[in-house]
């Protein structure tokens, strides 16, 4: 499906910003709803971050998302 939604990795309630590009990813409505309804999975796979998350956690979350999307071979490289 087309990406129509902006998902905040760290929610505004947790101190994240929807105007900070590094905090936002594009999702389709179905995936966005699913992630919102499954926060434990979303956190494990790098789609949600805790309030205390900093630069290192953002990079780790991106690696988790890439690993989930593209497979293990891209998951153990250097930070992009
Ligand atoms: Zn989707």
Q: In summary, what is this structure?
A:
The chain has 80 residues and is of the alpha+beta class. The protein is built from three helices and two strands, in the order E-E-H-H-H.
Polypeptide structure, described:
This protein is an alpha+beta fold and 80 residues long. It is built from three helices and two strands; from the N terminus they run ββααα. A two-stranded antiparallel ribbon has the order 1-2. The chain starts with a strand and ends in a 10-residue tail after the last helix. Bound molecules: zinc ion. Residues 1, 27-28, 30-31 line the site of zinc ion.
Helix content range:
25-40%
Could you say how many structural domains there are in total? Answer: 1
Q: Tell me about the largest β-sheet.
A: 2 strands, antiparallel
Q: How many strand segments?
A: 2
Order of helices and strands: EEHHH
Radius of gyration: 12 Å
Cα separation of the termini: 26 Å
Bound molecules: zinc ion
Biggest sheet: strands side by side, in what order? 1-2
Arithmetic mean of pLDDT? 91
Poorly predicted regions are none
Label the structural class.
Answer: alpha+beta
Number of helices: 3
Percent strand equals: 5-15%
- What's the overall geometry? globular
Topology of this protein?
Elements: E1 5-8, E2 24-27, H1 29-37, H2 39-44, H3 55-70
Antiparallel strand pairs: 1-2
Zinc ion binds next to helix 1.
């Amino acid at each position: 499906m087309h990406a129509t939604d902006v998902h905040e990795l760290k929610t505004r309630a947790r101190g994240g910003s929807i105007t900070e590009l590094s905090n936002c990813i594009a999702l389709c409505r179905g995936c966005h709803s699913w992630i919102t309804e499954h926060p434990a999975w979303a956190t494990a796979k790098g789609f949600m971050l805790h309030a205390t998350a900093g630069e290192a956690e953002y990079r780790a979350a991106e690696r988790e998302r890439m690993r989930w999307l593209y497979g293990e071979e891209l998951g153990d490289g250097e930070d992009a």
